[in-house]
Amino acid sequence: MGYWLGGDLGVYLAANRVADPSLSIDERLRFLHLAMKLDMGPRTALIMILPTGFHMASNFGMVSLSPLLLSLIWIGSLIWLALCWAVFLYENISLGDLFRKIDLTVRYLMLGVIFAFSIWSITSENSYFDLWLSLKLFCFSIIIALGITLRIVVAKWVVGFQMLRDGSTEEANEIILAARRKAKPQALSIWTLVFICGFFGATKLI
Question: What b/e readout covers 175-191, taking b as 16+ CB neighbours within 10 angstroms?
């Protein structure tokens, strides 16, 4: 959780400078590239929380998962992690666009599966998990959803900086600032949900 929230805080602070119209374009772009690099910490943590969480729950006897199922969870998560890093490493070539589309598709699939399973687990009398773990999975699905919407909002920065290069300063800055305003509550919501997930995992109160 420390790697996740610490990296996210760095992204948040760098994003403030990206949206600062008093800075030069080059300076703002440097902060944008910094934010993208820092964001790989939280992106990695989001993916790896699944296999590590299930593995720890299995080790402590909180869930009953076969070695085969645990292995499949680890393999699938590592493939997703490799895809996530491929998006970052190949962002400036056409292959990066393909990786980005695949990664986004995976996130939508994971969102649907985890959300549906968590709702069933919370409401069913035959759930495999304790309520605290089901709620943790539900919160995690909302984090994935917020991450997707945050990515869509921040993509407006690309439009804004292109307009800045073309000389449309006032309109471009408004687009960038508007995206920053929309991103702020989503980022704060993600932090809150990460804390809630950590609280459920640490206390197991319900």
Answer: bbeebbeebeebbebbe
pTM, whole model, 2 decimals? 0.88
The residues, ordered by sequence, that sit 6+ positions from 173 with a Cβ below 8 Å of its Cβ are 21, 160, 164
How far is it, in rounded angstroms, from Cα 135 to Cα 200? 8
Cα separation, 123 vs 193, in Å, equals 20
pLDDT at 167 over 80: no
Picking from 61, 193, 191, 87, the residue whose alpha carbon sits closest to that of residue 137 is 193
pLDDT of residue 62: 81
27-42: b (≥16 Cβ within 10 Å) or e: ebeebbebbeebbbbb
